[in-house]
Amino acid sequence: MDLTAESHSIPLSDRNSIPLIGLGTYGDPHTTPKGTAYESVKVAIDTGYRHIDGALLYFNEHEVGQAIREKIADGTVKREDIFYCGKLWNTFHPPELVRPALEKTLKTLKLDYVDLYIVEMPTAFKPGDTLYPRDENGKIIYHKTDLCATWEALEACKDAGLAKSLGVSNFNKRQLELILNKPGLKHKPVSNQIECHPYFTQPKLFEYCRQNDIVIVGYSPLGTSRDPSWVNLKCPPLLEDELLVSLAKKYNKTTAQVALRFNVQRGVVVIPKSFNPVHIRENFPDIQLLSF
């Protein structure tokens, strides 16, 4: 079937659903011009995207929220049509900080709830006024975390109606098991957002999540960020891969569309980030979905 605004969602274990393709909204706050996320989200919604992936850490949730509210106000969508994913940052793991963090996101978005709220990482940083606490040597100051206690605070947020669904990100099998085997578990994680693309398919974690009815949300579906501080730039970018390029030529698609379809056919939700209107449009309408 064609990927349309009306027909590209898959079910979650809590009886909600998640659109298979979303727009990632991360942009370096130091180099991204103001208004970029705002304009990109509006283009995405007009194109047919209904899934927007954001985070407090991106420092642009005010722009994302404004774009969503304006597209609701002009009649393009209703609030229930939009699926917004927010994230609990590492400095807010203590249970007493979880709800305030989510409420801060909601206040910034000017929305009553998020559709999915996820633990961004299984590691915690020292709580405080800075999101990246460092010692005198410039090293990150970590904080002891109890993922089960954090999860219980998230469950309370869901029960309060602040989040429709709960999930995690960057969790491995052991960390997922901590939550799934927690005594008195009320709401299981419905998703695990991890890096996932043709160069990094994560087959073991993919299968474990499938067996436990946890949807994989693949970030960087078009390849890892080319940050020279941690990526070997001698390795070719994913979108220049010879096989992907040849497949794109064969089927008259872009290499990005081929890479996205690879994951979509596996039932992996993809959230390609782009602030380029042409790419935003290309990444959505021409992907054909196979039956799962």
UniProtKB/TrEMBL annotation:
The active site is at 58 (proton donor). Residues 21-284 form the NADP-dependent oxidoreductase domain. Pfam families: Aldo_ket_red. GO terms for molecular function: oxidoreductase activity. The record marks 87 as: Lowers pKa of active site Tyr. SUPFAM superfamilies: NAD(P)-linked oxidoreductase. PANTHER family: ALDO/KETO REDUCTASE. Belongs to the aldo/keto reductase family. This is 3-oxo-5-beta-steroid 4-dehydrogenase. It comes from Larimichthys crocea (Large yellow croaker).
